[in-house]
Write a structure and sequence with these properties.
Radius of gyration: 21 Å
Shape: elongated
Strand content: under 5%
Length: 171
C-alpha cells in the first residue's frame, strides 16, 4: 500500500514538474505578445500622437501589464527628475524588470536596446526602425507558438516517463 502511494506521489511530482515547465513556456509567449503590443503602441504614439519617448513611457505606465508598468513609470519619473541620458535609464529599468520574466536573453535585448534606435530626428524613420524590432519579436513569438504544441507534448511525455522510471528504480 505504501509503495503504491509513494509511486503515485513520485509520478505526480514528475508530472507537476513537467507542467511547471509548460507554464513557463506559456508565460514566455505571453510576455512576447505583450512586448509586441508595447512596441506597436510606441510606434503608433510616435507617428500618430507625435509624442516623445518620455511621454510615451507615461502612457505605457498606465496601459501596460505588471512588470512593464512599473518600469515605464520609473523611467518617466526619473526622466523628469534627472537630466541623464534616456538610453541609460531605459536600459537599467528594463534590465531590472525583464530579469523576472522567462524571456530569452536575445528577446530581452530587443526591448533594452529600443531607445538606441531613436537617434534619428524624423519620427517616421524612428517608427520604421522600431518596426524592425517589432518584426523580430513577431517572428520570435510565432516560432515560440508553433513549437509550443510539440514541446508541451514532449515535456509531458518525458515527465511521465521519468516518473515511471523513478518508480521502477526505487521499487
Amino acid at each position: 500500500m505504501l509503495k503504491a502511494v509513494g509511486g503515485f506521489l513520485i509520478l505526480a511530482g514528475c508530472i507537476g514538474f513537467g507542467g511547471n515547465r509548460i507554464r513557463e513556456e506559456q508565460s514566455r509567449i505571453r510576455h512576447l505578445q505583450e512586448l509586441i503590443r508595447i512596441i506597436r503602441r510606441i510606434q503608433n504614439e510616435m507617428v500618430y500622437g507625435k509624442h516623445t519617448l518620455p511621454e510615451i513611457c507615461q502612457i505605457l505606465s498606465v496601459s501596460s501589464q505588471a512588470p512593464y508598468q512599473e518600469a515605464f513609470d520609473t523611467i518617466y519619473r526619473r526622466m523628469r527628475q534627472e537630466e541623464t541620458c534616456l538610453d541609460r535609464i531605459w536600459e537599467q529599468e528594463m534590465t531590472q524588470s525583464l530579469r523576472r520574466t522567462r524571456l530569452r536573453e536575445e528577446e530581452r535585448e530587443i526591448l533594452r536596446n529600443l531607445p538606441r534606435q531613436m537617434g534619428i530626428r524624423e519620427e517616421k524613420y524612428q517608427a520604421e526602425s522600431i518596426g524592425q524590432s517589432m518584426d523580430l519579436l513577431v517572428r520570435k513569438c510565432r516560432q515560440a507558438e508553433e513549437s509550443y504544441e510539440n514541446q508541451s507534448r514532449v515535456i509531458f511525455s518525458l515527465s511521465i516517463l521519468t516518473g515511471v522510471f523513478l518508480i521502477i528504480l526505487l521499487l
